[in-house]
Amino acid sequence: MALSELNNITSQIFGNINIQTVPISEILIVTGIVIASIILFAAFIYGMFKLAKALPSMSVKNFMLLMLVIAAVLIIIGILIP
After folding, report:
1. Does an H or E element contain 69, and which?
2. Are the CB atoms for 16 and 30 separated by under 8 Å?
3. What pLDDT, on a 0 to 100 scale, did the predictor assign at position 59?
4. Closest CA to 4 of 27, 28, 20, 26
5. CB 48, CB 40: distance < 8 Å
6. Percent of the chain with pLDDT over 90
7. What residue segments make up the domains of the chain, in order of their start?
8. Global pTM?
9. pLDDT at residue number 43
10. C-alpha 16, offset from chain centre
11. Which terminus of the chain has a smaller tally of CB atoms within 10 A, N or C?
């Protein structure tokens, strides 16, 4: 039974009650985006803790490489945003 049919049946029984029906695809898309956002945020936090633990024991060469990677990522983001 579709939601529109349920809405028709309930409107006949209970009068004109405005029930907002949202397609199930929109609910699934929003749920998927929320779950993916939570996973990405958790991975970011986990990576920051790993970086904070590794940073004091990093050699100068590795630290400079890390700074170059961060600079490259920022340049690419700066090019893509406009």
Report:
1. helix 60-80
2. no
3. 87
4. 20
5. no
6. 30
7. 22-80
8. 0.50
9. 93
10. 38
11. C
Taking only the tens place, the pLDDT of each residue in 28-42 is: 888 889 999 999 999
What is the pLDDT confidence band of residue 14, given thresholds at 50, 70 and 90? low
Contacts of 19 (CB under 8 A, 6+ apart): 7, 10
**DSSP string of 10-67?**
HHHHH-S-------HHHHHHHHHHHHHHHHHHHHHHHHHHHHHHHSTT--HHHHHHHH
Q: What is the pLDDT of residue 36?
A: 92
Q: Which residue has the tokens 């050699």?
A: 59
Q: What is the pLDDT of residues 46-55, one digit of tens each?
A: 988 988 888 7
> Over the Cα atoms of the chain, what is R_g?
25
**3-state class of 4 per DSSP?**
helix
Distance CA 79, CA 53 (A): 31
CA distance 65 to 73: 12
Q: Which two tokens stand for residue 78?
A: 């700066």
